Amino acid sequence: MPSINRRALVAGLAAAAGGARAQTGEAFFRGKQISLLVFSGAGSAYDVYARLLSRHLGANIPGKPNVIVQYMQGAGGLKLVDYINRIAPRDGTSIGMIGRGLAFEPILGRNEVNFDPLKLNWLGSMNREVTVALSWKTSKVKTFEDLTKMELLVPGTGAGADSEIMPRAFNNLAGTKFKIISGYRETTEASLQLETGELEGIAYWSWSSILAAHPDWLRERKINLLFQTGHKDLPGAPGPIPGIQDFVVDQTDRRALDFLLAREPLGRPLVAPPGLSAERVRMLRDSFDATLRDPAFLADAARGNIEVNPVSGGEVDSILKDAANAPQEVIDRVKKILDR
């Protein structure tokens, strides 16, 4: 009998098994439809990113399923989180794009829909975000110093939303005087009220959102940029913008602010339900990563002036694990800041 090359046999079996897995994924998704659920409404920055992704993600998933965007608004994104956590099918045909701050809420003791962010399957994010605070050109608040002396009316979109959490934190940590007007569905909708005078500014909005949705605000100097959450000059800004970190002196407060700003690298996180097989999660993550490298996707993003700076699913996992393991004194300080 001819001798058997065991190494070649093992390699062949492994390749066959890998091929079988790929075929299984391809066979499953062929002819299927994936729902890409978005917690904010049509025209929002999250929607813009979701629609860009939907045009290219299916081409990079085995079986080339159709990907459609659907909206699930409510409770600042908690309605979508609850759906993904409890109700969505555990097979990869439902994925969601949620607010980047929602995953931190259970860590801070607020868990209205009873989910564990460490058990959700994070696929990654299309962009790392830096946010700014701004006032409308007619507001008396023109600078950060003004903001420590006079109230600025800003929109809130839900108790668990960044639009309410972050200005409350800035007020406590840096002495700002944001006055939150709750009841808006989303920041994009609220931004329309700046021109009417119903609102005077926005306390926490992604720089990429402003560039994509309101470049005229910058071009025509309709807004005052009060501070930013990053450490570098922002592309497209009319000049240097002070960083909020520069106005927080106490070391525990600085660590609390760092904890709160840890959500920003999550950008616009894409999440799949808990309970998916490791193989299915790996395939979805690989497909998402491949999409964000796809020349057709990048060209589409460039045409729409949409910033792309990918974050992997593994990196999201690491950020959330670090947050969950933050020192208790930092967690306690953040809870106190947010009155929890």
How many helix segments? 13
Helix content: 40-55%
- Gyration radius (Cα, Å) is 22 Å
Determine the structural class based on helices, strands and strand pairing. alpha/beta
| Integer tally of domains | 2
Instruction: Write down the overall mean pLDDT.
Output: 91
CATH topology of the largest domain: D-Maltodextrin-Binding Protein, domain 2
* Full CATH superfamily name of the largest domain: Bordetella uptake gene, domain 1
CATH class assignment of the largest domain: Alpha Beta
Helix and strand arrangement:
Layout: H1 6-29, E1 33-38, H2 45-54, E2 66-71, H3 78-87, E3 94-97, E4 121-125, E5 131-136, H4 144-147, E6 152-155, H5 162-174, E7 178-181, H6 187-191, E8 201-206, H7 207-213, H8 215-219, E9 223-228, H9 251-261, E10 269-272, H10 278-293, H11 295-303, E11 311-312, H12 313-324, H13 328-337
Parallel strand pairs: 1-2, 1-3, 6-7
Antiparallel strand pairs: 3-10, 4-10, 4-11, 5-8, 5-9
Helix pairs in contact: 5-9, 9-13
Task: Report what the structure shows.
The chain is of the alpha/beta class and 340 residues long. The chain is built from 13 helices and eleven strands. The strands form three sheets. Strands 2-1-3-10-4-11 form a six-stranded mixed beta sheet, sandwiched between helices. Strands 8-5-9 form a three-stranded antiparallel beta sheet. The protein has a two-stranded parallel ribbon with strand order 6-7. α2 (45-54) links the parallel β1 and β2. α5 runs antiparallel to α9 (251-261) and α9 (251-261) packs across α13 (328-337). The chain is globular.
